[in-house]
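Continuing the batch. This is chain 6 of the set; chains 1 through 5 are on the previous pages. Same settings as before, nothing changed between runs. Recording input and output for traceability.
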Amino acid sequence: MELTGSASAVPALAAAYDVVRQPLGQILPRLSRALGGVVPHVAAAELSTHCAHSPFKTAGDSAQAGRITVAELHPLAASVTAGEPWQGTVRIGGAEHPVLAVTSDATPRGALLVLVRGDDSPVAEQDSAVVQAMWDLVTSHFDRLATEAVPGPLAQSRAAAGERARVIAELTEAHATALSGLLGVLRSRGLDDAAARAAAVDLAVNALVDLRSERELDQAVAEEPAGQAFARLADSLRPMLRYSPVRLELGAPDSARPLANDVAHAARAVVRAVVLTVLEQDGLSRMHVGWTLTENELRATVRDDGPGRISSCTLGPHRVTERLEALGGRLDMDAVPGWGTTVTATIPLGTPQSSPEDPLGALGARELEVLTHLARGHRNRVIAQELHISESTVKFHVANILTKLGVASRGEASALFHTVA
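Output for chain 6:
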């Protein structure tokens, strides 16, 4: 439904109801369409900092909406006052455009909606008030979902936030690794300017290639053999120490056991973070990195012969402990002044999502959606219609749900869902 300028109460309420009943990913596009008759615009952008699932969203003309960035929205989020619509011209989507921006304080950290307009004619006060009221209602709806989330949406939000954190951490550590290698070249006294320049270019090119190839591999596999996972770690560590006086010793795991992707990711990320910290020490000549697999755990160890003054606080900026705790792991340190430091990261090989504290954690996002409908008593045909999938696909998801939850019937699965909820 689309509102018109100076909309009456009944159409406005009907449009609001139509917006908030949409799935989370469709709320902004539907809101944009609903407001199109009130404030014509070519694109809409949202910055909802309380939302872990996807705080930044765009809708509208793909050529315009696709160029909008989070960095362009932050100044508006910081300057627009809640309840006071602002209109003017800003740089958004890479060019200057007239916009109408509204902020809601329905959530503690606020939420911003920006309508990118096609002309700079003033928006009537009553029309901007409609936009503000609609955004306050939508934001209140978001806040309720966040504070009263049922297991399905809550698990989706946590999964999305965890994945975003993982990607950010991986990119940060990959860049830090490449920069450490470049610094090693620049600090080397054994290379003249031409050789140092060639080595730096070679490291930079290899870092770009490695980033692309790792991204493609990560998208292709859910598990990888422990030896292969360690080899990828070794390949990322060697450039860091290629021109360093520190000798790197590697201890590959004596096992072909497959590792879950999140475990392999975490082990590599934690080791790289520890290695970066270790290399900041003076008087270091040797470092050993090794992985050991037991029946239930992966132990990643970094041992050096430095001054022995590293502490868990030193590793704080890399968020090593938080990353391990997310997988049910722990970090142990043994530092002996004058003899060196041994850092051991222990990661369980079982899936922490299946722990008693989170019985639904083993389910995927689509399976959680299907389970939510099962808990409401919906049959396969209704679920298929609601989720826009075939009935056979619903049956496939139901079978997986029963297997993963360890229950024998749809009723037991529904009961478990309501118990958690």
